[in-house]
Amino acid sequence: MDHKVNGFQAIPHTADWALAVWATDLPGLFIQAARGMYNLLGIDESILQGADVPITIRLNAMDTECLFVDFLNELLYQLETRRLAARQFSLIVNENDLGAELICGTVTDFCKEIKAATFSNLHIVEKDAGYSVTVTFDV
Amino acid sequence: MYDEIEERMVRKKDLNRVSEFEWEIPADYRKDMRGAVRIFITDRLLDSALEDLSLEQAVNAASLPGLAGKVTVMPDMHQGYGFPIGGVAATRISNGVISPGAIGYDINCGVRLLSSQIQYRDVKSVLPALADAIDYHCPSGVGSKAHLHLNEREIKDVCLKGAGWTLKKGFAEPLDLAHTEENGCLAGADPDAVSERAFERGCDQLGTLGSGNHFIEVDLVDEVFDPKAAGLMGIVEGYLVVQIHCGSRGFGHQICTDYVQQFQTAVRRYGITLPDRELVCAPVESDEGKAYLGAMRAAANYAFANRQILADNLRQAFEQTFTGHMKQFHLHPVYDVAHNMGKIETHNIDGVMRKVCVHRKGATRAFRPGTAGVPEDYQTIGQPVFVPGSMGTSSWVLTGMEGSMLKSFGSCCHGAGRTMSRHEAKKSVGGAQLKSSLEAQGIIIRAGSLAGLAEETPSAYKDVDAVIKVVCGAGLAKKVARLVPVIVVKG
Questions:
Q1: Are B362 and B86 in contact (CB under 8 A)?
Q2: Phi, psi for B461 (deg, rounded to 5)
Q3: Which of B29, B4, B35 is nearest to B16 (CA)?
Q4: Lateral strand order in the sheet of A84-93
Q5: Of these four, A44, B5, B68, B400, which has the most CB atoms within 10 Å of its CB?
Q6: B63 three-class SS
């Protein structure tokens, strides 16, 4: 895993989906996880349609890992109920709160579903080069 | 990360063989365990199970406060999130906990079986039309919307009445409810414990199949092993039956999401330490525990209603297809059973009958003959259990046996169990190629997504016959009939 750049990679899981994510800072980690989750769902810029829809998200939680899972589940909720996926992200992440300004597009057609982002074996690790985490999604 | 997983994985040397079909991880394997882990499995299936973290997750489950007896794991086990798929854990009511993650996001995911008086050989040429009719009448796929849109009052009514709501609305017959676990309605559901978001997600999904491993499958009854039980269920060799596999859709997913989030702070409040945060829990009798139980039961009732409406849609598909071809095309309800559920039940714990909270995640209730809760007309044979295979292989109808009450809190397996990741499955076969291959075997496929179809390739699953051999060999269940697929409809 190269911590000099931000990124994500799907890793094997017997039944569900798991994603290794890394970034140089915490907001970057959250954004990469979101992009990775969209990637698993087959959603990218090319399938986002319609005018930009701004969304503001404010979350409070007991720690950063809770914020991380809550943020991904918030995106899943927006996707299922409003068919919106983020094109652009602007995030501020502190230990107990998160503020996000997202610019979303509309997803008209996607063929996969994630039930939820989970806490299973989820540990956000901070090292010199940045942050990393592995997140498991129930599908 | 892989090094870390390698260090934590349970190895074969950590297990003791108990019998031909049973192994055990002793309670002293790890300090935080509150009981042993009993695994129903053969040598060969065990070797496969040791390749992922399912046994580690079972050991984690054994650390739940107030654990009663042993954690048990079925032969279709595989790695899940927090709790293994195929796992059963009972906790005491007085000082035990309830864990949403040990029940799963798809609350009351389950299987309904309907039998018919339609002989396969008489209708072979009409089956493509039947597949189209099922695909038309039963909404499936990601984001699929139901024929119904429920307002807030109606969805709360569904939460309280479950399949009973569908009877009132004309989507069910009285026998449908009598042949559903808990008569299609768990008492104690509390819509006030359900979030607005869950209602928002659930209001237009009642009567939809969803995606992933959910399916509707028309099967041919290939062989009957227990004629008495099959007769009582209306299952006849050479005739068609239908399976529906789905759950509580976004409604249940949101309820589990909400409570896994809320319980992150509850565990701190109650001083509970856990090896995996997905196992977060609260005392069964605490305000938090009661609220989750009420919300979970609401989702369970939603799922019972969901499968009932799909069954009604199926009846319409059969009527559309077979009217004019034959007189007897009505689908008879065999049974409807959950495999992701938390239930308060009474079981024999170390010789004493105790009320416990049984968490079943990817495990089916399998009560023996004569047990309260088994429908009146099945009292002599035991509760029907359905074990779907994969799209190209057998499925099984079983009945619960005495062994399940003694060894697994009245539980049995729920499927074949995955052995290959979805990514690997897609690499192994293309969706179009798989569809052609299944159709060459005489199985008609209707799938919303070919990529999704490839993820469910039969080669991604264990040998379901080997799984059945274990549960029957261990005395948890008895064979009634083997089914083979002729139509598969997936989202």
A1: yes
A2: -115, 160
A3: B29
A4: A48-60, A97-107, A84-93
A5: B400
A6: coil
B432: enclosing H helix or E strand: helix B431-440
Residue B206 sits at φ, ψ, to 5 deg, of -75, 120
CA B445 to chain centre: 22
Residue type, B312: D
User: Residue B9: which of B25, B28, B27 has the closest Cα?
Assistant: B25
DSSP-based three-state secondary structure for A55: strand
Q: Where are the alpha helices (DSSP H) in B118-195?
A: 120-123, 127-137, 152-161, 163-168, 174-178
| DSSP class per residue in B201-253 | HHTTTTT---STT-EEEEEEEEEES-HHHHHHHT--TTEEEEEEEE--HHHHH
Q: Tell me, what's the ipTM? A: 0.94
Q: Is any Cβ of chain A less than 8 angstroms from the Cβ of B85?
A: yes
* pTM > 0.90: yes or no: yes
How far is B306 from A106, CA to CA, in rounded Å?
28
Could you tell me if residue B249 is left (phi over 0), alpha (psi between -120 and 50 degrees) or otherwise beta? left
> pLDDT 10s per residue in chain A (139 long)?
444 589 999 998 888 899 999 999 999 999 999 999 999 999 988 889 889 999 999 999 999 999 999 999 999 999 999 999 999 999 999 989 999 999 999 998 777 889 999 999 999 999 888 999 999 999 9
Contact predicate B331/B242, CB 8 Å: yes
Establish whether B137 is a catalytic residue: no
Residues ≥6 apart with Cβ < 8 Å to A32: A6, A7, A8, A21, A22, A23
Interface of B with A in 103-162 (CB under 8 A): 104-106, 141-143
